[in-house]
Amino acid sequence: MLTLRAAIREEGIxxxxxxxxxxxxxxxxxxxxxxxxxxxxxxxxxMNVLFGLLATSR
Length: 58
Prior knowledge:
Layout: E1 2-9, E2 12-22, E3 32-35, E4 39-42, E5 46-55
Antiparallel strand pairs: 1-2, 2-5, 3-4
């Protein structure tokens, strides 16, 4: 699901949102980190993405 909010500001239109993406949809593998030999840290295939955009005229 993608959530968007927009607001008109003096400098332009501010758009912010969030959504979930699957890394495998883009041919990517979840990152893994290894600390020492015994501890393995990994992530899931799904990640939350937060963003903010300011649309202005040139």
